[in-house]
Write a structure and sequence with these properties.
Blueprint (H helix, E strand, L loop, with lengths): L1 H23 L4 H17 L3 H8 L1 H4 L2 H19 L3 H27 L7
Amino acid sequence: MMDYLSAFIIGGMICVIAQILMDKTTLTPARILVSFVTIGVILGAFGLYDKLIDIGKAGATIPLPGFGNTLAVSVKKEVDELGLIGAFTGGIKGAAGGITAAIVFGYSMALIFNPKTKE
């Protein structure tokens, strides 16, 4: 039960920070999203995001900083194994499963439901 609570708290804190940035600054949602991914990459590159994952589990891996962390960890691993070429292939290999799932499930939902554009 504590895993669920910690995931809820950590994931919720990340979402609260994003909402505060959207409400109180002039940053666009796109810039906030890119900032969150970049922060995840930086924290992942230094091994700091792993500590947050130990506490928050899925609450830390699912939001955008978790995606950035996945990119950083994958690139580090590929660079260790393949050298410089790993800097180009690591992020793609590490994030391929999540990106593929997002595309497949997004497309499936578009087929099942009637998507509408915002007015």
